[in-house]
Specification:
The protein is mainly α. The protein has 10 helices and no strands. Keywords: Membrane, Transmembrane, Transmembrane helix.
């Protein structure tokens, strides 16, 4: 926990640097594939420092995050199986350590993942679910890449531009609200959106 707290404070420290925008891009890129701290932290701090640039920061954050998502996809796509279709040592390791995770189960999960590809990626991109887990596994299960890319752009853009709009519109008072409730609101919004989609799908 101390390491995470120090990392969190280190990320916030970039808000007072002239390299803040560059740091935001790097952070957004890294968070989509391996880094533990979400870019929202620095995005909020930079937006509060200069509300006029809030949407510019949102765009930088979105581009960095989507490029990072592509890197995460590549990690899963190329490190799980060889070009010949054989499982790598990394894949075999997970087959051994996860109870019930057989090659048959892998095929079933892969089929389910591809059936709901857009919504799986969108949910992780907008909600509090760690996005890096989905970007990497999307590559593992070979989700259709254009669908993956569109879902990433829509979800990440919607999330970051919403945060920037709130900062631009309400300023400092909204920071406490975002810090306390944004993840819950994002989760509820995602559930309602996906629930509505499936309701319409089954209704017609």
């Amino acid at each position: 926990m101390n390491i995470l707290k120090k990392t969190y404070n280190w990320v916030l420290g970039w808000a007072d640097s002239r390299w803040g925008a560059a740091a935001l891009f790097v952070l957004a890129f890294a968070e989509s594939s391996f880094f533990p701290i979400p870019p929202d932290v620095l995005l909020i701090a930079l937006g509060l420092g200069c509300a006029a640039k809030a949407f510019r920061y949102a765009l930088i954050c979105t581009i960095g995050s989507v490029l990072g998502a592509m890197a995460g996809y590549a990690i899963g796509h190329y490190l799980w199986q060889t070009p010949g279709g054989e499982f790598t040592a990394i894949a075999d390791f997970f087959f051994r350590i996860i109870p019930g995770f057989t090659h048959t189960e892998y095929d079933k999960i892969c089929a389910m993942y591809n059936q709901y590809n857009f919504w799986v990626v969108f949910t992780a991109g907008f909600s509090p679910i760690p996005y890096k887990l989905i970007t990497i596994t999307a590559g593992v299960f070979k989700i259709d890449f254009p669908v993956f890319l569109v879902a990433s752009v829509v979800s990440r853009g919607l999330r970051f531009f919403l945060i920037s709009w709130l900062i631009w519109k309400y300023g400092e008072p909204i920071k406490r609200f975002i810090d306390k409730y944004f993840n819950w609101l994002a989760l509820v919004f995602t559930v309602l959106l996906i629930g509505g989609f499936f309701a319409i799908k089954h209704a017609f």
